[in-house]
Amino acid sequence: MAAGARAAIPLAITAGLVALSFPVLATDVGFSPLATVIMSAVVFAGSAQFTAVAVLAQGAGAGGAIVAGTFMNSRYLPMGIALGPSLPGGPAKRALQGQAVVDGSWALAAHGDGTFDRWRLFGATIPQFIAWVGGTALGVALGDRLSDPDALGLDAIYPAYFLALLMVEARNGRSRGVAAAGAAIALFLTPFAPAGLPVLLASVAALIGLVRR
Amino acid sequence: MSTQVVVIAGLTATTVAIKAIGPVLAGGRELPGWTRDVVVLLAPALLAALVVTQVFADGDQLAVGPQTVGVAAAGGVMWRTGSVVLCVVTAAVVTAALRAV
Question: Please, which residues 117-146 of chain A have a Cβ atom closer than 8 Å to chain B?
């Protein structure tokens, strides 16, 4: 668990800094400061929160915001299916443990043989959760005094971190081929599909694993 | 109910459900052998998709920007040094520097 937490420190720092900018957008569409912090604590999914609020800002109603945010989170479905067999306990206990899944933690917890270290998953998620909620609360307190986090290049940290994990993960030709195929599927679908679905559908590339080597 | 309450409650419900479905349905037993390779390959597929959608997309438009260059430089640093910390620092510094000029 401690190893997972240590490995997730770059992610936690990033989450905290990105979270600082969330209240600016949320309060613009009429969220109260309290509701903004509660949203980070109970939804705890950055891309879905930013998407939902951005859709509201474009004039859509609550339903449109929920659908857009849900699409953004759809990638957690294949991640959860992969994780499932590595979780002990009954269905309710497994469902609860599955709530710890966020992108970085899921990738850090993967052993590379199809199984997952659940303590590494929990350990990696805890600092990110604290930083996400804490960063949101601090952002609320700072209000409009915040400068633009994009000016600091923070938006490049998540993709760079995922690229680093990918380079560690994709050790053989087959996984590199699947990575290329997943990237191609996601890019191809980006102009047509609602945000979030291209990433979900990229998981189709993993079905090549059904083919015997 | 105000919009904020509906959005937060609705998005919480769908997020919890999405994260619960896999562990409930696929949990409690060994994966059959033929699914194991698919699970192993999910990580490269999803990670690569996350990288390119954050690096080459601006909303539903394909676009390159300072962060595209920053992440590419970070990939080079990762390849040469193997250091995750150097990799993410490079991404932020290069992206910020390009935006500043």
Answer: none
pLDDT at A162: 85
Establish if B84 belongs to a structural domain. yes
Domain count, chain B: 1
Q: Is the pLDDT of residue A43 over 90?
A: yes
Sign of CA pseudo-dihedral A20, A22, A25, A31 = negative
Q: Is A87 touching B (CB cutoff 8 A)? A: yes
Q: Are A100 and A84 in contact (CB under 8 A)?
A: no
Average pLDDT over residues B62-75: 94
- Which residues of B fall within a CB distance of 8 Å from A90? 28
Q: What is the spatial distance between Cα A2 and Cα B97, in angstroms, rounded to a whole number?
A: 34
- Residue-level pLDDT at B84: 83
Cβ of A164 within 8 Å of Cβ of B44? The answer is: no
The closest CB to that of A62, out of B6, B41, B93, belongs to: B6
Expressed as residue numbers, the domain containing B99 is 64-101
Q: Which residue of A has its CA nearest to B72?
A: A160
